[in-house]
Amino acid sequence: MPGTSRTTAGATVSSLLDAIEPLGRDGATGGYRRPVFSAAELELREWFIAEAERRGLGVDVDRNGVIWAWWGAPMDGALVTGSHLDSVPGGGAFDGPLGVASALTAIDRMRERGVTPSRSLAVVVFPEEEGSRFGVACLGSRLLTGLLDPDRARNLTDRDGTTLAEAYAAAGMDPAHLGADPAALARIGQFVELHVEQGRGLIDLGKPVAIGSSILGHGRWKIVVSGQGNHAGTTLMVDRADPVVAAADIVGAISELARQIDDARATVGRFEPVPGGTNVIASRVDLWIDVRHPDDTVTRSLVQTIAREAAVRAERHGCTAELLEESWSPTVGFDPALGRRLADLVPGAPVLRSGAGHDAGILAASVPSAMLFVRNPSGISHSPEEYVERADADDSADVLADVLAGLL
Ligand code: GLV
Ligand code: MN
Ligand code: MN
Fold it and tell me: Can you list the domains of the chain with their CATH numbers?
């Protein structure tokens, strides 16, 4: 019920984050491994549901596994906020969970202030935002909005060969129901996602919070480099078609090509020789590239150049290279009118574009969407060194409460 206050006094964003701090954390590196529907991520989803229910929010899980926690009855045109709880391998504590914890705490703050909403507000948790398990980033929001074909989604596999369909079923959801959900989408009148900043923008500006303007277009491609598997001791160097050597050459070329284009970024973060043995010349290398640029035509053209250069470099080593697209998100600008409302509600906040992808960017194609970014003193993300000061984390709930109360 709007306005109903439950026993959440004393909850702060940092205390909520403290409660989940051990989940999926690698004690040796301090990095998080919370792939979607892993034991750690499922526990986080349960934690979120318990925190929502503690606040008297009504919880439902839609056909794509997005969790919705309602302040007020579910309705079309609601104000929606939230983020994700999955992580990249070796990620930080804040990428995703900060937005979820801030959303819950913002409801506490609004209730303490006596805000009586004129429409319902929902906090959502999207599954597989990072695409770190099944390869497609923002998988939950892509399914919901119809941007991802459910048959393709069901057949995606993780590194162990588990299909997405199997992972949904193991998590207690029927994968037959995956796909575009116009009824769920209609419930989103406006979407606001609060997120840790993943670069240095706010440190350089000396400000705690920014408003997002846009998200850089980005995509993921797999390059398969094929050669001849053989014996490390009996195969002379001149007789080899070693795909690891070809792939190393290709990685160097990718970096060289991206450096020649202003504002382009190209990353090889995953590189897998097959079968992978110290005394085995691999028969194949699978590597994945992430390419980004504000101008989608530049991104596309860079990827084509990479494909051509990969083929040339592979041939030099007696190998072949094939490039396959796994996901693509065009550059997206957030809703200008909503952005102006946020600028009024967070006076003095600078406006920053995001080099990182977010579910808000996927939703922006369908509903007015906006983002808030919270200062990260390390300027580092997708790493254990990602950081948010406790005071900034706690203040983020007040900023989000100001924004949500202003929009309600
Ligand atoms: C997600 O954080 C991404 O930008 O890949
Ligand atoms: Mn994120
Ligand atoms: Mn991320």
Answer: 6-216+331-407 (3.40.630.10), 218-329 (3.30.70.360)
- Contact status, residue 138 vs residue 220, Cβ threshold 8 Å: no
Pocket test for ligand 1, best of 34, 130, 373, 381 (most atoms within 8 A of CB): 130
- DSSP H helices in 317-346: 336-345
Does 137 contact ligand 1 (Cβ within 6 A)? yes
Q: What residues pair up with 214 in beta bridges, in sequence order? A: 333
Tens digits of per-residue pLDDT, 244-258? Answer: 999 999 999 999 999
DSSP code at position 43: H
CB of 130 within 6 A of ligand 1: the answer is: yes
This prediction's pTM: 0.95
pLDDT tens per residue, range 62-118 = 999 999 999 999 999 999 999 999 999 999 999 999 999 999 999 999 999 999 999
What distance in angstroms lies between residue 356's CA and the mean position of ligand 2's atoms? 8
Question: From the CA of 389, how far away is ligand 1's center (Å)?
Answer: 21
